[in-house]
Structures are given as C-alpha cells and as structure tokens.
C-alpha cells in the first residue's frame, strides 16, 4: 500500500457532505418546474425544513404539507429514489453529523410523543436498522475483517464515547478466543501511548459513528503511519475513518431518538466473534475446558 496523505483524506470529509447537501437541494430546485402542484409543496417544505423531513414518515409529511401519502412517494420517485425510505436515508445521511444533542431531543419529542408507543416504535426502529445492515454489509467485507483479525500479531480495539461499549463487548469475547487482544481504555492514558509498540504486524479495530470523534480519527492516522492494518466499523464508506481503512464494515445506526442505535453494531460484533471462533474452534474447546475447571473451583456460577 502506497503512502497516504492522511490530512487531505480527513479534510475532504466535510467537503463531501457539503457537496451531497448542495447536490440534493439543487436536484429539488432543478426538477421543481416539472413537478405537480402537490410535489412542489413538498419540495418547498423540504428545502425549508429538511432536518425535520429526514425523520418524518411519509404519512406525517403528507399530513403536514396537506397532500396524500401517495403524493409523497411520487415526490421521492420524481427525484430519482426508488421510494420514500431511500429519500429519507439520503436526508439523514446529510444531517446526522450536524445535529446537536438539543436538536435531537426536539426531534425525539415529535417522533416519540405518544408514550404508549415508545417501546414498540424504538424496537421497530432497531429491527429496521438491523435489516438495513444485513442488506448493505458486504459478505466479503465481513470475511476480510475476520481474516485480518486472525492475522494480527496484536489486536487493538478502540471505540470512543458511546462506541466504547461496543469495543469492550467485542474485546471481551475475542479475548476468550485470542490471547493478543488489547482494548484501548481512556482511563489508561492517551490511546497512542497504549499503542506505542504498534507495528505493521498489528491490527487496529476502530469503531466510530456520528458525531465522529476527532480523537478516533487521530488514532487511526497514527496506526496508518505505523503501517498497521485498520478495520473500520462505522456507518458508511464515506465516514472519515473508512476513507483510509484497509477493511470497512458498515453498520446502520439511524437515530431512534436523541441517541444513535448501537444495536446493529452489537449484532455485527457478535457475528465477528462467531466468525473468528469458527476458525479457531479446536483451540477454543481446550480453552473452555480449562476455564470451566477454574469457574468450578472458584464457584463463579451457581
């Protein structure tokens, strides 16, 4: 792999998002003249309120603007999308790195205002996120991630802020299978200090979702400078760390309220652990036989 200008690769991410935003807004303006009266109302409302539209159902948007749900679907089709969900995904992709926590809370108040439906709606949203992950995650990327993990002299796993819990979960179970796992901990000093011996024989798993942590990007930059391989677990191939990673595992994490859903990330972590385990199953049997003896001796379980 040739040398990479890391600063330029990271700096272009913001430009990419802005280009997409301008492109989608320009598309609505360009096709405005050919739209029906109802579609024009939708276009104007979306241009003025696209942060709200990104999280409105087709029926809710139609009700707000004063058109039918079928008109909303045809509006999305007129813009070149196969359906309203795809149009909504495009809007969400534009704004999820920009929304403040306060804005997310305000949107949650609108989307989950019916207390009797909160549990059902959140669970449905999580299920939909997992389904979208299944549809978008390439099998080859998953297999490459498993093989890259098994090739590592030392395996570092890092997630910051809420992603740290996915990192700990993944590291906890991989530690049962492999004896070279290091979970980067923020209470142990700077991440780069914990990776000071990182080399080209090592692998870093970096977990990052919007709003993307700058420190995570800095650590990935450090790993690439050391020649290590990087596995990025993130929401899109256009995410900052994905642009320079050796392997990209994409996980949908559309907002279920003022927080992002990490349920699909935990599911993918499960799949990675199982994939590694199936290739190391003979060693695992011997390990767990020994571990069961220890558990029994120290009465760990009832």
From TrEMBL:
An MF annotation (GO) of this entry: DNA binding
Domain SIS, by residue range, is 145-289
Q: Cite the CDD domains for this sequence.
A: SIS_RpiR (cd05013)
BP terms from Gene Ontology: carbohydrate derivative metabolic process
Q: Can the keyword Lyase be found in this entry's annotation?
A: no
Q: Is DNA-binding one of the keywords UniProt gives this record?
A: yes
The UniProt keywords, alphabetically, are: DNA-binding, Transcription, Transcription regulation
InterPro entries listed in its UniProt record: Homeodomain-like_sf, HTH_RpiR, RpiR-like, RpiR-like_SIS, SIS_dom, SIS_dom_sf, WH-like_DNA-bd_sf
Q: Which residues does the UniProt record annotate as the domain HTH rpiR-type? A: 22-98
Q: Which PROSITE patterns match?
A: HTH_RPIR (PS51071), SIS (PS51464)
The name of this protein is SIS domain protein
Species for this entry:
Peptostreptococcus anaerobius
What taxonomic classification does the UniProt entry list for its organism?
Bacteria, Bacillati, Bacillota, Clostridia, Peptostreptococcales
């Amino acid at each position: 792999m040739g040398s990479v200008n890391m600063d330029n690769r990271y700096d272009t991410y913001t430009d990419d998002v802005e280009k997409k935003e301008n492109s989608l807004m320009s598309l609505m303006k360009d096709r405005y003249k050919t739209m029906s009266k109802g579609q024009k109302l939708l276009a104007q409302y979306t241009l003025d309120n696209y942060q709200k539209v990104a999280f409105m159902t087709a029926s809710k948007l139609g009700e707000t603007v004063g058109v039918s749900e079928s008109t909303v679907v045809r509006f999305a089709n007129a813009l070149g999308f196969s359906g309203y969900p795809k149009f909504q995904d495009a809007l969400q992709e534009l704004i999820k790195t920009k929304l403040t926590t306060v804005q997310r809370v305000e949107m949650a108040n609108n989307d989950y205002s019916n207390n009797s439906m909160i549990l059902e709606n959140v669970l449905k949203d999580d299920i939909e996120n997992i389904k979208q992950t299944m549809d978008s995650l390439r099998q080859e990327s998953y297999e490459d991630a498993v093989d890259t993990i098994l090739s590592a002299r030392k395996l570092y796993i890092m997630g910051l802020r809420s992603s740290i819990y996915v990192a700990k979960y993944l590291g906890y179970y991989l530690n049962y299978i492999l004896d070279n796992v290091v979970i980067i901990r923020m209470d142990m000093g700077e991440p780069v200090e914990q990776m000071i011996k990182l080399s080209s024989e090592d692998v870093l798993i970096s977990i990052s979702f919007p709003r993307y942590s700058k420190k995570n990007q800095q650590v990935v930059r450090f790993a690439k400078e050391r020649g290590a391989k990087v596995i990025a677990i993130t929401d899109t191939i256009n995410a900052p760390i994905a642009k320079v990673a050796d392997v990209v595992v994409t996980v949908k994490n559309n907002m279920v309220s003022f927080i992002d859903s990490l349920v699909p990330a935990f599911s993918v972590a499960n799949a990675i652990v199982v994939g590694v385990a199936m290739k190391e199953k003979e060693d695992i049997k011997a390990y767990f036989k020994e571990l069961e003896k220890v558990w029994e001796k120290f009465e760990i379980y009832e």
